[in-house]
Write a structure and sequence with these properties.
The chain has three helices and four strands; from the N terminus they run βαββααβ. With 101 residues, it is an alpha+beta fold. α1 packs antiparallel against α3.
């Protein structure tokens, strides 16, 4: 198992828009072969979010992302995501992890 974890801040007033966007994005990720997507909201700081994308292994990740990146629906959603983040949200932080146990 290989996961990619993103951390970012979504302005509270844009939460509903973000959730609708993610529902569409998750559908595309799964159609393209991603093993699963989980979205979490910080219990103490509701503007902070975490997204976990699961892949079979390190080699599976670029294959899936290559297909996702070519999907025109995802390009539109990514532009919308950037506008939701706005200047308040800053950049998404990305980290890669291998499952060990």
């Amino acid at each position: 198992m290989f996961i990619v974890v993103y951390h970012y801040k979504i302005p509270i007033k844009k939460t509903r828009d973000y959730v609708q966007l993610e529902k569409q994005a998750i559908k595309i990720y799964l159609e393209c072969g991603c093993s699963g997507v989980e979205i979490y909201r910080d219990a103490s700081y509701p503007a902070r979010w975490m997204e976990i994308n699961r892949f079979e292994d390190r080699e599976h990740y670029p294959r899936v992302i290559g297909v996702v990146d070519e999907d025109p629906r995802m390009r539109e959603l990514f532009e919308e995501f950037k506008s939701i983040l706005g200047s308040e949200g800053g950049e998404a932080e990305k980290r890669l992890y291998y499952r060990m146990i």
